[in-house]
Amino acid sequence: MPNSTGPPMPRPPPPKHIQCSMDTLPENYGHVAFEIIILLVTLYGNFMVVLAVVMFRRMRTITNYFVVSLAVSDLLVATLSLPFRIHQTTHNTAWCLSLEACVAWIVVDIMCAGASIWNLVIISIDRFIAIVLPFRYHALMTPISGFGLIASVWGLSFVMAVLSFINWTDYGKPHFNIFISCANFDPIYYTVLSVVLFFLPLFIVFVMYGHVFTVALTQARAVAALQTDRQATTDGGRRGYINFLKEVKAAKVLAIVVGCFVVCWFPYFVLVLVSLWDPILLSRDTISPEQAKGINQTFVSALPVLNSTLNPIIYALFNKDFRRSFAKIFAQFCRRRVGSDDGNNLPTL
């Protein structure tokens, strides 16, 4: 949910028809370039995540299906949301498209952001079961239950996005506005939305990972205390401990993903709620136009879209299985290109 869902920072703009006919200001060149780079990297990185799971059988685990669902939400941000943002930035933050396009942007933003955070929730639940209840994992996290969780995530996100069509604060009155930029002025809706699609799932994630790392620490201490015991050094004991360490390492990677999500999205939700319920705090009487612009570009425009780019980078840096899969895909692509240049046809994976 980028700044299409929140009110614009107050500033004295020229008439809209003049703004939409103006060339992009030099001060916005860097921001446009940043957004284009984010779009391209997001497309490439998340497509590689999906491709790795599709191409390699060993990558087809329930956990990675949740990761693919997360990558799909980021791909939708890049294909359906970022182009609107780039268009707005090239027009110096003025909204120069129709009201229908504005509504479509807001709905897509809400659905994708909601899917992202709730995908992180089911990933944290998956890690909780794998580490805290390892002997029940395969009974609880079956393909049917896994795909059911994914469907529930997207269903909830879609419903919350569609509910934006209703004005919860002043029922029946228009609440979408494109006077300055694309925005939805509905404090009650955004308060409920923030709780359902951000603060509640974030609380669940923290509780899940709190239990995960508590159990991991307890297990690590127990294993260390038994190092002198012969039973602890048997092949079965070592194998079980290695499997446990792999689960903990996977949980650490996903915890990094959650941490990045919080850094990228928490300031945005706080600013949206403040701007809707107490706009004086962000008015020209409180902060300067330069400060307002800096807050808007950093916490409303840059960080939320950056989050969609970070996830595949984190997998590439910290997850050995994804890193190897990315390398194999790249090597296969290079071999196919060389084979094509030589007139040979190499089989695909």
Overall description:
With 349 residues, the chain is mainly α. The chain has one domain (25-323): Rhopdopsin 7-helix transmembrane proteins (Up-down Bundle). Helix content is 73%, strand content 1%. It contains 10 helices and 2 strands, in the order ααααααββαααα. The chain has helices spanning 16-21, 29-55, 62-90, 99-132, 137-140, 143-162, 187-225, 235-277, 289-318, 320-341, and strands at residues 176-177, 183-184. The protein has a two-stranded antiparallel sheet with strand order 1-2. Strand 1 and strand 2 (183-184) form a beta hairpin. The longest helix is centred in the C-terminal third of the chain and has 43 residues, at 235-277. The radius of gyration is 23 Å and the shape is globular.
Quick rundown:
The protein is mainly alpha-helical and 349 residues long. The chain has helices at 16-21, 29-55, 62-90, 99-132, 137-140, 143-162, 187-225, 235-277, 289-318, 320-341; strands at residues 176-177, 183-184. The model is unreliable at 4-12 and 343-349 (pLDDT under 50).
